[in-house]
Amino acid sequence: MTGTMTGQDYPQEADIVIVGCGPVGAMLANLLGMQGITTLVLDREAAIYNLPRAIQFDDEVMRLLQTAGLAEEMAPLVRVVPGMRFVDDTGRLLLDWSRPVECGRQGWSESYRFHQPELEQVLRDGLSRFPGVSLRLRSSVFAIDQEPDAAVVRCEDLTTGRLHRCRARYVVGCDGAGSLVRRLIGENMDDLGFNERWLVVDVLLKRPRPDLGDHSVQHCSKQRPATYVRGIGERRRWEITVLPGDDEARIVQPGFVRELLSRWVSPEEIDIERSALYTFRSAVATKWRSGRLLIAGDAAHLTPPFLGQGMCAGMRDVGNLAWKLGRVLRGLNDDSLLDTYQSERAPHVREYIELAVRLGGLINTKAMADAVPRSVLDGAEVAQMRSIKPRLGPGIANGWNGHSGEIAPQPLLYGGQRLDDAVGYRYAAVMEPSFAAQLPRETWVRLEARDATIVTGDGEIGAWLRDAGAPAVLVRPDRYVLGAAHSNQELAALAALI
């Protein structure tokens, strides 16, 4: 049975130890549990933090929840986001980043609002499905020793004061910006140049305010730039620039906070849940792995919140890492597969961070004037923005052209089943029926031996393959394209990579 109580025995051995059970660590534990990997999760807190923090995730995260078998539990707890707008001091629209609310190519809407404590509860409840996954709360890791065949994690049970140790094949630090695991790896963060102080205020509305709208709003103010975000239910968030000369002790006080928010809501309309000062940073760790130690999430990268991609990036990290750990532990691949984790993920997350930095700059009126066409600022038109979906960096299919490294769509199969549900957490060889019919037997045998599911079909699958310009595509367990094949020889070459 999954252990979630403190003061009880700790496993002395595990395949994986995860340090930190926030959303990223909990998602990793679910993905490992699905593969039958014995996992110990250690978190120093006694319970889930009950106030809002991350409040937005995208279609890739919902697809990961689907992979983990938790999308149905999460779906009633989210709200689709129609997009983001940039306005000036008069409320004039400068940039429009509206997003479709209907399901897209990945089988989900592009963006969702959520309440982080609810997401964490869904993820932690999911761990109870896996007898090999143990969660120990109030557990503080203070040392990790690497040995030739294991990493030995030493921790203290903060409830009892007892010390424990666990031998693991690998240790993954999902332990935040101050990560102990990153410090033990011994590398610094590469600062990408954005460091600003902002006040984050979460409120509960006492009465409906539909005029505030469902869109996120970036207020490109000459006086004090700010961001408005609609949360779940009556929750609303404002992120407000801290100006030079602001008294930081005073700015978080309820009276001053209500004064700052009076531009949008009157003091009697809100209850303040939380007000806190943050330094929004942009940074990427220079090394994500050292031997048996790896890092993910905020331990590996930090991004300003303007794109809503901080937690999403961490979820993508573990979506990339979990299946690779599983294949290494099952003997399907050697340890070098884990070296592709940083090479694929770091350039991908950097592209998101750089866009978030640019968005942060646009909230500054001068930067907006430099970046937005004069016709927009003169009111003749509204500039449009589109979501990005970067490719992975070089890795497993390094040098393969075409669609390699792109996130794959999720077509419906005949009968209405979604592709990911049919495939499971493994490779998928998606082919036109005519191509599959003349595939050499040795390629079939290779794919099946390497734990790949073979999917054929017309309909939405056929439309996707026509768009890809190839009769076959090999999709990785994290739903990214390994490569598109135009011939039997190309598919055989792709199959040889897995």
UniProtKB/TrEMBL annotation:
The lineage of its organism: Bacteria, Pseudomonadati, Pseudomonadota, Alphaproteobacteria, Acetobacterales. One of its GO terms (biological process) is 3-(3-hydroxy)phenylpropionate catabolic process. It holds the Pfam family FAD_binding_3. PANTHER family: 3-(3-HYDROXY-PHENYL)PROPIONATE/3-HYDROXYCINNAMIC ACID HYDROXYLASE, FAD-BINDING MONOOXYGENASE. This is FAD binding monooxygenase 3-(3-hydroxy-phenyl)propionate hydroxylase. The keyword Methyltransferase does not apply. Residues 14-354 form the FAD-binding domain. One of its GO terms (molecular function) is FAD binding. Keywords: Monooxygenase, Oxidoreductase. It comes from Acidocella aminolytica 101 = DSM 11237. It comes from the Bacteria.
